[in-house]
Amino acid sequence: LKKAGYDVSLIGINDVDDAMVGELYQFLLNEKQFANRTFNKVFGHHTSFFKWYSSEFNQPLRNVFEKVKRKKINPNPEIIHRDEFKALLKSITPERGIKQYPSGKKPKRILYRPWLKDGIRLGLETGRRREEIISLKFLDIKADPTGSEYIVVEDYKTNRIQKRTTKEEKKYIFIPVTESLRELLLDLGYEKFKGTDTYILAPDVKISRTRIMSDALSKGFSHYYDQLDTGKKLTFKSLRKTYITNLSLYMGGNAKAITQHSDDAV
């Protein structure tokens, strides 16, 4: 808005109009050059804020962000095949982690992280979302009376949507520790940290686990997968799709017994 000539110190929430929204739209599109999902997220935050403000202060307010046309994104992720997955892990090196922007308007970014490969492996072996993966701790690994191990994972998405705040109300998912998942856990220090409050993924990382690590997983996956030049556009969500697909095949179509979806639509 400053670049467009507005004095932001004089603008109140009731002054925000279509022209200002248009300036923001062009700024995100032409200068920031955000990907479609990020572009939509910005307008989603503004839309939510206006709704909250109107409700919180009981003030009628025209939500000028609500009618902004969102960009198209891929709502139906594909699975990743075994050979692609192996090639992806092999490609994750510091040298290949530099992302250059063709327009030159953005500085280059380093998308390599020492823990990225482990995070991607955890995504495939558990089928959980990024936020849940980076929050897993070794004390979340339990065993039933027969000795079979499983990981207790909080379903953050469902708990937020349904406003489940207490431990009794929250929904948890129980992930079976398969042979390959156990091998991964051992690689990550299971024998050393078993039963402790130590994070399973990158315990030494001190940055924001909920935002920075989550973004690094998503952007890192896409960056390295694009370099495989398969002709497909896979995202980190493809790991979850792959896990659930294999689970469904293994369990004769009854994957929801473990994923706890209400039906088989997913």
Class by helix and strand content?
mainly alpha
Number of strands: 5
Mean pLDDT: 90
Question: In order across it, which strands form the biggest sheet?
Answer: 3-4-5
The largest sheet is: 3 strands, antiparallel
Number of helices: 11
Can you tell me the residue ranges where pLDDT is under 50 for at least 5 consecutive residues? none
Principal-axis shape equals globular
Beta-strand portion reads 5-15%
The whole-angstrom Rg is 22 Å
The helix/strand series, from N terminus to C terminus, equals: HHHEEHHEEHEHHHHH
Helix content: 40-55%
Distance between the termini: 41 Å
Describe the structure.
The protein is mainly alpha-helical and 266 residues long. The chain is built from 11 helices and 5 strands; from the N terminus they run H-H-H-E-E-H-H-E-E-H-E-H-H-H-H-H. The protein has helices at 18-32, 36-56, 82-91, 116-126, 130-135, 156-161, 179-187, 190-193, 212-226, 237-250, 256-259, and strands spanning 98-99, 109-110, 141-143, 149-154, 172-176. Strands 3-4-5 form a 3-stranded antiparallel beta sheet, with no helix packed on it. Strands 1-2 form a two-stranded antiparallel sheet. The chain is globular and about 65 Å long. 19% of the residues are buried.
